[in-house]
């Protein structure tokens, strides 16, 4: 498939201590501000019609990456290329067009919908922002697609009159009403009652097929991502540590972090006999980033100095279909991991 979106070394750092005392100290030169390195050099492609999962524990940067993809955050560095246009160099008209084509579904349908807006206005609002006609017909079609039937019955309802599942369907209708090219779905069912999840997931599945959409799913739930995604990217402390075809990553994980994550997923049938491995240790400091591999303090495969000093690049490794960022696979003859100590 053709590439729809290219994420090129994306970084998003947030300043900590934003208060006036911090600004005053900074203006007097008393101390450098601290930054959380939420996303710290992430590159991947999103192809037309594909579903890509971003996985990892909370705080790994997956949500910040997703919000950057739809331009809810401007990157600190790096860029996103959409339809051959670098967004950092795009005109206002191109950015407006991009915003129309890039939509997001948030985790919490209780917070993402304005409680003072009716269902109709909630779904119609993006059409008004983008000056698109045929409002009523489009709102109706989007609600019908989201299986809120009959659609007119929902027009005048407010979010508090709806169930969690219905609210998430309204959010999906709002995302679809502009006929976008891609959608970022951030933990789209994690706040829903278990009994409602399957229905919303099958709606999302149908949305991908019928609209030919590309979708980025963000979740900590590998079973869900396995079901929904063509490819996976596993994130740890702001970086992708492994990415590739879903089956390959799930069946044949190579990065020690991916292996630990997969082993930590409960197996429904204990007879299947997978040893449950709990992740040891704490996630490292996202402000004062450790040297070398960020997973080193929790890694069961730690191999010494090279892990301590050299950032493992995310690369294709011989014998594997996936890209892996780990020095365990550096052993090709003549390879010198110390050659580029600046890699980040
Ligand atoms: Fe473990 Fe070293 Fe690989 Fe990092 S680079 S995951 S510390 S073996």
TrEMBL record:
Keyword Transport appears in the UniProt entry: yes
UniProt keyword list: ATP-binding, Nucleotide-binding, Transport
Gene3D superfamilies the record matches: P-loop containing nucleotide triphosphate hydrolases
Residues annotated as domain ABC transporter: 5-262
A Gene Ontology BP annotation from the UniProt entry: transmembrane transport
Listed Pfam families: ABC_tran, oligo_HPY
InterPro entries cross-referenced by the UniProt entry: AAA+_ATPase, ABC_transp_ATP-bind, ABC_transporter-like_ATP-bd, ABC_transporter-like_CS, Oligopep_ABC_C, P-loop_NTPase
Presence of keyword ATP-binding: yes
GO molecular function: ATP binding; ATP hydrolysis activity
UniProt similarity note: Belongs to the ABC transporter superfamily.
Name of the protein this chain belongs to: Peptide/nickel transport system ATP-binding protein
